[in-house]
Amino acid sequence: MKKDSAKAIWERFQQESLTNKDLLLATERKPIRIIPGVKIIKIGGQSITDRGRAALYPILDEIVANRRRGKKIMLFSGGGTRARHAYQVALDLELPPGFLAAVGGPIALQNARMLQMLLARHGGIYINAEQFEMLPLFFKLGCIPIMIGMPPYSYWEEIPVKGSIPDNRTDSGTFLTGEFLGADSVLYIKDENGLYTADPKKDPDAEFIPEIAVSKLLEMDLADLVVERVVLQYLQRAKIVKFIEIINGLVKGNITKALNGRHVGTRIYKD
Questions:
Q1: Which of 32, 147, 161, 269 is the most buried (most CB within 10 A)?
Q2: Which residues, in sequence order, are CB contacts of 209 under 8 Å at separation 6+?
Q3: Under a CB-based contact definition with an 8 Å cutoff, are residues 182 and 38 in contact?
Q4: Residue 139 lies in a domain
């Protein structure tokens, strides 16, 4: 940036409000990639972790194998059944959404710590927000960083669009981290092949959707989704992430294929 233009921006920031539409538009630009090539993976809580050893061990073995091949992989944990139980109790007590967000995080943390212990001998390391800036070092050392997927909004959770369950849960925290670090995509490991027109566990006539533009998916306004709805809004506004992909982690080889860019589940892509 030229010195004169930098001075002009500085002066404009001094003179105008940061809510000015024209000023905000003038700041539109694609940010740099903080960690190019990073692979962001969320392991579902209820869909994978809660199933125990039979489901989780093969997935972790596949992740370790890909890390040894040089992939920079970062894992995120979901909350699962225990988080849902905490939400139900809190809702019965008529507590606000911010409290639900606060109690949901520690349960995802429990799952993250279990993932870290299982991967410890392979370089698995749990990191919290204060250690986030150390990610480049952890990757250089060959580690597999693990974080909770829950974003740290806690009591300051945004007011939900509908109901009282927080919109921003472990899917959204995973996505926002991927966007910040500069990932091309974000992978969500579930126990289903991807997105359907309805919950395939409840509706045998549900149709599989192999790929779809995020704007089209929002227009469909499906009654149920395999990923948090707010993630679709974030994807629309993303500067770096091009698509999210939901894959069936119970199918051996799917994770490796997805990490190598192959389409194996449902891709929801930015228009």
A1: 147
A2: 194, 195, 196, 197, 217, 266
A3: yes
A4: yes
Domain with 87 in it = 35-269
* Number of domains composing the chain: 1
b/e map 47-80, b = 16+ CB within 10 Å: bbbbbeeebbeebbebbbebbeeebbbbbbbbbb
Averaged over successive runs of 10 residues, the pLDDT of the chain (271 residues) comes to 56 74 82 96 96 97 97 96 95 96 94 98 95 96 97 94 95 97 97 94 92 97 94 97 97 97 96 90
**CATH (domain of 197):** 3.40.1160.10
Residue 17 within a domain: no
pTM: 0.93
What's the confidence (pLDDT) of residue 21?
84
Strands (E) located in 20-113: 39-43, 73-77
- In-domain check, residue 245: yes
